[in-house]
Amino acid sequence: MDSKEVLQQYIVGAMKSQSAIAELEKNLVDTSDFLKIQEAARSRYVIGFIRRVVQFKREEASAKDICLNIRDLILVLGRVKLTEKLYTVVKEYGTEFDLVCENDLQVSCLHHIPEWLEPHQYIKDVYALRHDDGIELETESSGDAILATHTGFNAYKSFEQKVAVHTALNLPNGHTLLISLPTGGGKSLVTQLLASSSDGLTVVIVPTVALALDQYYAAQQNLTNATEIYCYRGEQSEIERVEIIKALKDKKARMLFTSPEAILKNSELHRILDNAAKSHYLTNVVVDEAHVVPDWGVFFRPDFQIFSILLKKWKYESEGFIRTFLLSATLSDDVVDTLFALFGSDGKNAQVRCDALRQEPRFYFHSAKSRKEQVDKTIEAIKLLPKPMVVYVLEPREAKELQKKLREFGYKNIPVFTGETTETDRNTILTGWKNHDFDVVIATSAFGIGVDKPDVRTIVHACCPENLSRFYQEVGRGGRDRLPSLSLFIPYQSRYDSDGDVRRALGLVSKRVLTVDRAVIRWKGMLSNPAAMIDSDECVLNTSATPSTMTVEEAEYAGNRNVAWNVNLLLFLHRTGFIDLLDANYVFDKKSNPPKKYYTVTIKLLQPDILSDDDSLTAALTEPRAREYEAQMVGYRIMSELVSSPKALCWGRVFRHLFPLSREVCNGCPADPEGRITSDDTYKLRTDPEIKLPTAPPAPRLGRNMGSFNEMIISRPSTGPCSTEEVAVIAEKAYQNNIGAFVVPSRLADEIVYNGILLNYEEFYYAVVHCPYLFAKGVVCIFDGDTATNFTLYKNLGKLDAFGYRKILYCNENTIVANGGKTIREYSDGYPIPIQKF
After folding, report:
1. φ, ψ for residue 316 (rounded to 5)?
2. What residues contact residue 381 under an 8 Å CB cut-off, 6+ apart?
3. Are 94 and 108 in contact (CB under 8 A)?
4. Where does the Helicase C-terminal domain lie (predicted)?
5. Which of 126, 239, 333, 431 is 20 to 30 A removed from 55 (C-alpha atoms)?
6. Which of 364, 333, 45, 327 is nearest to 207 (CA)?
7. What's the predicted TM-score (pTM) here?
8. How many Å apart are CA 543 and CA 532, to the nearest integer?
9. Distance CA 708, CA 830 (A)
10. Using CA atoms, how far apart are residues 187 and 164, in angstroms rounded to an integer?
11. E strand or H helix at 829
12. pLDDT, tens digit, for every residue of 167-188?
């Protein structure tokens, strides 16, 4: 049943709420084309309406909450017939929302668009769920036996996803691989196939409990063997924890989703993973949503950065056995540098970069001349712009004030999510948001990380983010279902008010980097703290140590922020070559008053003479500190220029400047209202991964057949197109010979299942140039095209000679592959063998 049918059945009482939602959720499964994506979006609107009705009956939502929801429902689905009770509510409260009560319980809506937002077409596009010509769905790429065996999928979402998966599977021990795939590009499949295809344990580090659970459930659903998958988090039963610990001790767990805090703050889990690293049971460490790590150091949870110390120790104790994977979407250069500094492996870092700017957002900008105007315009946007909607503000205080104002207007069902929100409330809001319990969430930057809600239609910034990266990441939480979304940027600007949003953003940037004087004072504070243990050039430092500039009262109540600053100082000293980081441990000191929670960090002094002298250290840190501050200022300056001159340059070009590996995209902004459609490459691998793999040793039989040659022909007695059955036989024999890659014509790609990477001709032509390491285990190539195709195929195979990779050609010996009519038998150095011998 489609969304309108289910809605009608629910309204007339023929379907209960749970049955109606279950029926609608069937429409969310298949999103293979835009018509199905649009129906999925409509179904989500109806699910949200049903949930709002249930909440209204329970008095969890107000009359205005239900009218706010009905307005969007009608603008997406058209006129609706309501129950008598809802019709009465709309009759009393609906005028404010442009709802019109008609005969026979029918309700329509006048589409009022705020006059201060131009062009109006953006909003109309979003309500119409319009399919843009410039937005393309990924082209699926043929699957393989690895995918089919471990999951229920028979094709990759894209060629880029296939390359990412096989690059990860073939990554040498001790290496770090950064993978960026666009939102919705299927990063989680990399993690799932890594765990299911590797011996030992894969630990997946995620930033939020909600994301950990999302990925845990997705892995259970996708993987055929889901019994060895676990999720360790703070709020779970003792029975679950005991089960996880036992599986890890018995080395039966294959995949563990968890957070840095869970590892660092649970001594038993910490100890087990330490031992797993030493025994080579711990094989892979995956850091998901890796782009959040640099931003979370000072202001929000230093645990991610502390975890980098732990991972460094594991790598050392595993003797370079552990592989590290950093997963993210679009990345700026400074974030890449930071990630490799934290989690990289010297000389062993590689990247699979498929960065892409979001194609869905249309950008509105309105400069508020007062705080009151900013709040008023935000409230008007909440009422009149498409939902679901996230409203971002700068500080928790502002979020609560806006919520209070909305409650005065009669809204009851709009939650606040900030860094001050308790863990229990966080989980409730995140779960409710995903389940369509809220139309609007008011939040600070703490909200949204890793929350895969596909149908967010509007992102409002009633503030000025401190850098362009944060702004773009938050805008990117809209339109994940590939349908249009809106970004509304409403900064408060004043030439005379020091509280203007741009100046407040500068304050945030300034707080990110310690001044040299404060760095030296903090270093002395940790080194001279009574809890510090110093043994020659090794020290164990207490990160709760307070600087001498704090009063006794301030020091007594110094908490997480103080710890975060000390952690960041140690990481800065490590980056600049003054110390090495050896270990980190969490301490919960219940005896102190108030109780203290902090880390002890074991370090090695690399330049003790400088570190022991204040003047020398001040002089040595001045230039590195200036560089780091300047790096922070780059994103701020771009943001500041965007606010001061929003029409100076197409915003797509501005974003392209920040994310240089992406292609320019704009579907409408203040500088370019009509937007622009820019074509992209067929394959979107932005840089060649710098991976070099030696030629894999051949299977014994293959070695005997090929001898010292790198090329061999398997003689095909016939000519013309190969049959599926014929190629399937070759594929099975290639697998028995441990050959890693199999190349077939496009018409056969979906018919053949191969236990390695399966490529059609076009994919092969690309991969042999940009990802030659994929052929380190050899390649079998099926020739059955015309002379031009065979010529191109053989020419591209020749590019593997530079690496010494083995090439096996299945073809008729008289196939012409060179100018002058030369046959493959004349041209090739390898021996031809019959298929039986292969």
Report:
1. -65, -45
2. 114, 389, 391, 458, 460, 488, 490
3. no
4. 374-527
5. 126
6. 327
7. 0.90
8. 10
9. 9
10. 8
11. none
12. 999 999 999 999 999 877 789 9
